[in-house]
Amino acid sequence: MSRQDINRSGEMEVFVSVVERGGFSAAAIARRMTPSAVSKLVARLEARLGARLVNRSTRKLQLTPEGCAFYERSIAILADIAEAERQASSGEEVSGRIRINTSGSFGNHVLAPLLPAFMALHPAVTLDISHTDKVIDLMEERADVAIRTGPLKNSSLIARKLGTARKIIVASPDYLRRHGEPLSTADLRRHCRIGFSYARAVEGWPVREDGETVTVPITPGVQVGDGEAMRHLALVGAGLARLAAFTVRADIEAGRLAPVLEAANPGDTEEFYALYMGQGGPLPARVRALLDFLVGHVRL
């Protein structure tokens, strides 16, 4: 077969389906092909490129480093082709599925209220949203955009800053009636302090004491895996919680939670970023539209 006869975009579409569907059989169903045809196509692609793209096993399909790079570039190239076709046919409409991974707190209290406006601007876009506070692999989770806090650790990711949120300690009025309000760091140490069950940059609560910032360790009795679970435990009076202010703003205004030890708040903050894969190539129009919208509308 001559190089002119190779349908490169077709190969890329099949390969992307294999990656996103997690295997040859699922990709075959999606592409209306046989599993054997999909397997042979990927094998021909690997032979032509002179590189193994996937490691095959009975349990799961795993991308090689070369496969990851080819997948990323394929996504970008296919998006460019689709956008070129839309522009050529006078169709400037942003469309397609956007997969977003974010924490439950940010998703519920910041992202969700903004989505109706975004969807009204781009009615041909569909959203696939998943919530977790844990750090994820965008490639493994098939996420287009992840919203997280803190500095970047993966150099293959690009970040756009969405805003900065201050931290605050809160408790329910019922909890404070039963246990008393802590008025000092020493008081704070005697209270139940709800913690996260996964590793954090600072394992404890920073508070001001005698003009210095000290770290109060977390009571090991109550730990949770996400900020929304921590908020709900605080609402039912299980203990004190330290969360981003936007997470509990409505609860404080409604009297469901009350700030605690604000005089000892060191004023530390969390920076929130929208993260996406990028190697210098163009973004799909749908992802670029979401990022621009979030940067322009998120208020923490």
In words, what does this structure look like?
This protein has 300 residues and is α/β, with parallel strands linked by helices. It contains eleven helices and 13 strands. The strands form four sheets. Strands 3, 4, 5, 6, 11, 12 and 13 form a seven-stranded mixed β-sheet that branches. α2 (24-31) crosses α3 (35-49). The radius of gyration is 24 Å and the shape is elongated. The N and C termini lie far apart (57 Å). The mean pLDDT is 85.
Pick out its properties:
single chain; 300 residues; alpha/beta; seven-stranded mixed sheet; two-stranded antiparallel ribbon; 13 strands; 22% strand
N-to-C SSE string, H for helix and E for strand: HHHEEHEHEHEEHHEEEEHEHEEH
The residue ranges in which pLDDT falls below 50 over 5 or more consecutive positions are none
Question: What would you call the structural class?
Answer: alpha/beta
Largest sheet composition: 7 strands, mixed
